[in-house]
Design a protein that fits this description.
Strand order of the largest sheet: 1-2
Order of helices and strands: HHHEEHHHHHH
Oligomer: single chain
Number of helices: 9
Mean pLDDT: 88
Shape: globular
Number of strands: 2
Strand content: under 5%
Distance between the termini: 34 Å
Low-confidence stretches: none
């Protein structure tokens, strides 16, 4: 917590709170009060109000009449929808990125992959959700499509939320698959890029469903 007020835009604050929801700092069902959030992030209540409105629009928070704002609870049907939508959209994004990506974007994807693999080796699993979301955001940017970038960026936040509890089991394999995605993009092969991304998503979805069934 901070006793001094920092200059943080509503967008920066929204990302900070969203990251904490994804990582479980704010658990499903937790109440999000303006006072507590302002104190935790060292900001005034003004950006907190705007951030909460954005998080409600994104589906990370829910307002309950006469009770306040709470962290949303992701249902199994909602998770299934997210996984299916991702499986249909992201291979298209990868295929476009294979022919449209810039050298800088490819370099950033390789850098994020190396950071993810280093975090896995070092046991710093708390870093992986943020790195994974950023990897898929850059992949979306590399598609050259503003609409795809907007869709996949928001989707990546929700997917990180779905997968957060699955990180220890899938961590190593997931970042090895990111390396394969980078290789396909570097080769400029749209069909191979779409294939490896589709396989990556299928493996992740399978691990999630297995974990849920066992839980």
């Amino acid at each position: 917590m901070s006793s001094t007020v920092r200059r943080m835009t509503p967008q920066q604050l929204c990302r900070a709170v969203r990251d904490d929801i994804i990582s479980g700092v704010h658990a499903p069902g937790d109440r999000l009060t303006e006072e507590a959030l302002a104190e935790r992030y060292g900001v005034s209540r003004v950006p907190v109000r705007e951030a909460l409105r954005t998080l409600e629009a994104e589906g990370f928070a829910q307002s309950r009449p006469y009770a306040g704002v709470f962290v949303a609870e992701l249902t199994e049907p909602e998770a299934a929808d997210l996984l299916e939508i991702r499986a249909r959209i992201e291979p298209l994004c990868a295929a476009r990125a294979a022919v449209r990506r810039t050298p800088e974007q490819l370099g950033r994807l390789k850098e994020l992959t190396a950071l993810g693999q280093d975090a896995v080796r070092g046991g710093r699993l708390e870093e992986l959700a943020r790195l994974n979301s950023r990897f898929h955001e850059v992949l979306a940017e590399a598609s050259g499509s503003t609409l795809l970038r907007q869709l996949i960026t928001q989707l990546s936040w929700k997917i990180a939320w779905v997968y957060a509890v699955e990180l220890p089991r899938r961590a190593g394999d997931s970042w090895d698959e990111h390396e394969q995605i980078c290789a396909a993009l570097e080769a400029g092969d749209p069909d191979d890029a779409a294939r490896v991304v589709a396989e990556h998503i299928a493996h992740a979805a399978s691990a999630y469903r297995l974990r849920h069934a066992q839980g």
